[in-house]
Design goal:
- By secondary structure, this protein is mainly α.
- The protein has one domain.
- The protein is built from 7 helices and no strands.
């Protein structure tokens, strides 16, 4: 079995935290998981294209798999409007634990030491920063 790399570990933690976001839907209106919507929204930063869904469909058509599927494990890709409909009401406070978890994973993997050293070499002396 292939050992999970740092990126896969972070995405797995990210997915787990995102699945805890509040979901206002009721009944059977759950075609897209809240974590798929959130991961799709996040993956927009990697593609940097005006239409996330159009780009992912083009990738899937030409490569057989989209970035959202292969990098982030998105099962079904919601449209831009569906992403907004699912996530617009989620308060920022619900997302903070996601980034705290990512910092924990980076710390556990020993990835923050070099970063801290560089920051301190640049003259940053505040020891109360989140990564400090």
């Amino acid at each position: 079995m292939k050992e999970r790399g740092l990126f896969d570990t972070i995405v797995g933690s990210f997915r787990q935290q995102l699945s805890l976001l509040p979901d206002k839907r009721t009944g059977k209106n759950t075609r897209y998981g809240i974590e798929d919507a959130a991961l799709s929204a996040f993956s927009v930063f990697f593609t940097q294209t005006p239409s996330f869904l159009a780009y992912q469909r083009m990738m899937e058509g030409s490569k057989g798999k989209s970035n959202a599927q292969s990098l982030f494990g998105v099962h079904q890709i919601p449209s831009d409007n569906q992403i907004r409909g699912l996530l617009d009401f989620v308060a920022p406070e619900h997302v903070f634990p996601v980034f705290e978890k990512i910092l924990q994973v980076l710390e556990q993997q020993g990835q923050l030491g070099d970063f801290r050293e560089r920051i301190y070499r640049l003259g940053w002396t505040n020891k109360n920063v989140p990564f400090g």
